[in-house]
Amino acid sequence: MPPRSIRPLWHPLALLPVVCAALLSTWCAETAYASPEKVAAGIRFTYTDANAATVSWAGDFNAWNATANPMTKGPGGVWSVVMALPQGEHAYKFVADGQWFADPENSATSGEFGNSVVKVGANGALEVQKATSNTPYSPKIFIGGRVIGLYQSILNPAYSRYELSRPDMDIDLGFDVRFSDVLAGHFLMNLNPRNETVQDYRSRLNFKRGSLTLTQPDLTIRAFDSENIGTWDDAMRLVGGIGTFDHPYGFQRQGFQVRSPRLGLDTELLYTDNFQAGGVTFPGFSVLRPPLPEFVFEADPVQRALLLLQTERTDSGFRLTPGQASKVSSMDFGDNDKSFGFGDGNENMFAARVRRELPGALRLGVLGRTDRGFNLGQLALAEPTGDSLVRLRTGQYIHQWYGIGGEARWEPNAAFSVSAEGLFGAKRMNLVNGATDQVWKAGTVEATGASSLTRLSSTLAEGQHLTVDRSNRLHLASAWTFAKGDIALRASAEREQHRYPAWTQSPIIPAGLAPDDHARVLNVEFQRASYLNALDDLENTRTEFRLGWDRNWRYYLNREVRTALEIELTHFDYDARTAWEYQMWFPTGSFWLESGQHVVSIDRLSVLGQEEVVRVRPSLEVPFHSARNGIFLWKGTFTGVHLGAQPRYAESLFQLGWDWNKVIRLSSDTRWVKYDTPELKLTRGYVSQFTEATYRYSPTIEVAFGFGVDPEVLDPNTNEYGYIGRDVYLNRRGANGFIAETDYLSLAPQIAAAEKSLMNEKRFQLQAIVHF
Amino acid sequence: MIRRIVLLAATLSTLLPPTAHSLTKLEGEYQLMAEMRKSNRAYPWDWDSNSYDTFNNAQFRLFSQPRPGVEAFVKVESDWHPNDNNSARPEFQYREAHLRFRKEMGKRGIDSYWFSRQDRFWVDRYLIPFVYGRGDAQGIRLETWGFGGFNTTFVVADQSSQFNPADFSANDPVISRDSIAAQRARRTDDMYVARLRREFLKDKQLRLGFTYNRFEGWSGRDSVNGPSPWTSVYGFDGRYRFRNTDFSLEYGESRPTNESGNGRANELTVFKHSTGIRLPDRSVIQGEIRSLKLGTPRMGYINVAPGWWSRGPLYRNSIGGPTSDETGFIIQSFYLLPERAITYSNQLSWYGNKVFSRNATREMYNELYVEFVNGFTGKTAYRQRDTYSPSGGMLRKETRLEWFNELQVESRLAWLRVQSKLRDIGKPERKQLFVIENSLNLTTKTKIYNRFALGNDASILRKGLFTQLQYRPTGNMEMFLQYGPDYIGGGSTPVDEGNLNGNGDQFDIIKFILKGNF
């Protein structure tokens, strides 16, 4: 082996460490901290820097003079100075060897430069100020977060032993950043191995949500990414109030929100992009696409649509039946969803509202919203225009819906209000990407159909649209509170009307497929059919009345005993030709619902398809042993088809809680439910129980030990706790609106199995929640 | 529960902790490593920072104490390693986290860790390691002290890192990712540990302890189709101190999934002599006396610590040790020469299988350690290891001899260590290993470290030359510029490193390392 030279050690690159060391030395100085404090001669400030040659105090008090008030170095490199500051707020910084530093130990700052701030009171003492930072690394950053450890041991009935489930560690790490006095930022990162469905060591620190907010006296602009931006407070909640868990808007969306009170108008503009195709706010369900070999493709959808046209006998032979349409269309998916199709599948939303307060406690407003770019698809729609002539529109489309309307509210006093809102809108298929409008002529028309078809003309049809749903909604409501707020009454009525062209309805069984349920499920997004009287619209309506009554019995019982009753009467009027999924609790039947969402809560599973639905929700809240914060709560949900008839779904929730001592709280939560649903052949009752002991270290730190299925769990969408634990449990086991829409025949066994599983689940859990 | 919703939602939305200035610290470190290798007798201008021999990481640690006794810790790291962080750019990945709740009430206290990806299985032990680290896991560790005089440790954990949920493909027709079966599969590799210890009598002369562990394994992708194997162990330990001599005896017994077949083939022997006493096949027992002190102040003292063990053939422990089917003894002794800084140590041990085979090992180790004047120290050791293995109906004996020498000196300016080892003396595979190390403090911040290693056997002479320039301008950063393979001879006993084997030979590599922490 040849002798080795050491010359490479002296290569010019060897200088790199020295350069890096010089750069690093600027940030590796260590500091210690001590807060400003009141002393006899004023306020004493300290700054620790053992290596600094000079340190001085500079602030608005000395006109930011960097040399006027030098600090004195003491043991341990602690520099100090006492400033005789007068009463008021004072901004300052330290100047160490010419570099300006905010006070690392003063958590209050202001201004775009992050100056430290002290507030001196009348007696010369320091006043406590709201912290804008809790880290010495930056006076503009406030670090906070939450760590949740959840450990569950679940009985495995197969082996009659408890098994430790994969523990959950959910970690939120958030930063509130004060860029300046007008611009604030909020960023939240999350780490949860379970959510990522990867091995723990591969799970990442993910960006969860964030926002930037510019606040001016008459203008607020907020740019957000998956942030909660709330639910609009109009009666029909045009934005937000999503799904069965009533989620606010903003999650899984990126966008801008602009609000301004200029010109006496309360204006809000909202533009968002849904970066997950179809919208996924829990419990949202993406369509389970079957493996491609099982999916039915149309090799030539145009020819198929033409051949599906039906004929009728005339005096001279046969002709194409007028007033019919044949359709071959398929749901498509964007490229981001790694499937066939076009586009990114992302939905854009724009909403705006303007409101103005008028004399006489009247408020008027207009509002509107449009969603565009969901449910991408391909269409071939053929309509006869003569005995042998056919108009055929074919190509790719995107869905769009819009709604616009007005609202009025009269609130003469805080106890009484009347409001009204009207919306109308439409959902349509917009032809895009080279879609064409063609004219075809059939050479031969016979009893079995048309043949020898030739295309006479073809023109681009981009920009054309086909309306697939027109809808009107009207809502009237009133609320009255009296008896010093002890009694509140609410009443509302709402009517929602939809008109769909007949050809929009999916066939009961896709043509050409075996008439079994399996094929129907697999091809729920696939439609291929011919329709006679295709232009006859279907008209469906939903009329709903709600009555609410809240009563506080404190006057009679000398404690805050509350009762409430909510009655909801819904009447559906469906055209007999309406397909199952066009019920108005499914998003297919009502574009007003967020795409991918439904409002089929567990109780509504039992009344799907009914013309009349009644839901009664009473509740009772009784406090006891006030020293121990004892509380008893009963909430009932009774859902059926007639008032007075036995409910098809009867649920009672009983909650009991009291403080065992100052730090331990005991609570119990019981759910009893009874089904009586002939259509689903469900007649059983189920009980589930959750018992918990909670140890509270502080209002934001607790450790809880429980048994049963916890009704309070982290909402996968918001990552905050919600009283949805049992619903999530049942939903994940098939008792949900998606199964109801797409696979109704298997819904009953899924509900029964899910309820039985919930009832029999034996689960110990330890949960620690720490906010920092 | 309603309270939890309101309070948690409120605090999450603002991220404001309850106190204005709760302690939250961010710490971290960063390392940059680049290397250049000689190719065709020249160093191509190609610094490589993304090879399997480099480690470039950025680590970020969050430590928060929202109130006394409560602690949250999270560590994430991004390192450019093709196996683990296989993306276009490295991502910050989860490393570990814990929540800690600690409460002290005078002489009593409770301490608990809610840990994730940490090895917190340590429990105090002496002779038999009924529990030792199982690697990273997720679980809860609870310790108490002072309650009834007991010290207790409880650990419940799940080693779910073995399980990759991504294995349950969404297209898997049998078991989908969100299926209940998959949920069950996640309940795998459960580990339970309980340890109780208490001292008795005056001056804590008697100490008794009990250890229990249970391991529930994972039988494959899906635990639905077959029960997971499990093992549990009960262990008892006792120590009695009489005039500075400890008498220790420990006993443990295991229970496996299949509990049949616990015979009595585990006969107790004393120094290979039968006693006629038979213990269960699933038991282990071990004893020790530490130590017997013999001698006079003038002659010096010899300290002798005899130990003995017997392990049944069916003993199993999935969370700890020891091995099964073995009996043996060990006698450790050392002698300090009076008025001389010379220590002589000796260790004689014998151990062999009892039931399933007749393998046995006898080992004699002698060591002389001398402290010379002027900071020099020296050590010489000689080891003889005889192994007995059945071969053709006979016991075959094989003897291996090893001689180790070390000379070391350190001053304020420099440090030197020379080691040699002659391995397998007299055998065809004999090998001579030599290592010379030295370091020189050029300044208070700069140091040069050199190491030269030689490994000579009958086939080839392997070498390792390593030189490193170290620069530490502050306490939280260091910078190295080095030449040569750093792993040859690396470690506390360079001649013990087995990397002067196979391809372990000198090659030309220049590496630059810069690391800092904050």
Care to give the gist of this entry?
The complex is a heterodimer of chains A (772) and B (518). With 772 residues, chain A is mainly beta.
What are its keywords?
heterodimer, A: mainly beta, 22-stranded antiparallel β-barrel, 8% helix, B: 518 residues, 24-stranded antiparallel β-barrel, 2 helices, 27 strands, globular, disordered N terminus
List the helices and strands and how they pair.
The complex is a heterodimer of chains A (about 775) and B (about 525).
Chain A: H1 16-24, E1 37-39, E2 42-48, E3 55-59, E4 69-70, E5 72-73, E6 78-83, E7 88-96, E8 99-101, E9 109-110, E10 115-120, E11 141-156, E12 161-164, E13 168-178, E14 183-191, H2 193-196, E15 206-216, E16 219-225, E17 253-260, E18 265-274, H3 301-307, E19 311-314, E20 317-320, E21 325-331, E22 347-358, E23 362-384, E24 389-413, E25 416-446, E26 449-460, E27 465-482, E28 487-501, H4 517-522, E29 526-531, E30 537-552, H5 554-557, E31 562-573, E32 612-624, E33 630-640, E34 649-659, E35 664-675, E36 685-698, E37 701-707, E38 713-714, E39 721-722, H6 725-732, H7 737-742, H8 747-760, E40 763-771
Antiparallel strand pairs in A: 1-2, 2-6, 3-4, 3-7, 5-6, 7-8, 7-10, 9-10, 11-12, 11-13, 11-40, 13-14, 14-15, 15-16, 16-17, 17-18, 18-22, 19-20, 21-23, 21-29, 22-23, 23-24, 24-25, 25-26, 25-27, 27-28, 28-30, 30-31, 31-32, 32-33, 33-34, 34-35, 35-36, 36-37, 37-40, 38-39
Helix pairs in contact in A: 6-8
Chain B: H1 2-14, E1 23-37, E2 57-67, E3 70-79, E4 93-105, E5 108-118, E6 137-147, E7 150-158, H2 180-186, E8 190-200, E9 206-216, E10 230-242, E11 245-256, E12 266-270, E13 273-279, E14 283-290, E15 292-296, E16 300-311, E17 326-336, E18 342-352, E19 360-371, E20 376-391, E21 394-410, E22 414-423, E23 431-441, E24 446-457, E25 461-471, E26 477-483, E27 509-517
Antiparallel strand pairs in B: 1-2, 1-27, 2-3, 3-4, 4-5, 5-6, 6-7, 7-8, 8-9, 9-10, 10-11, 11-14, 12-13, 14-16, 15-16, 16-17, 17-18, 18-19, 19-20, 20-21, 21-22, 22-23, 23-24, 24-25, 25-26, 26-27
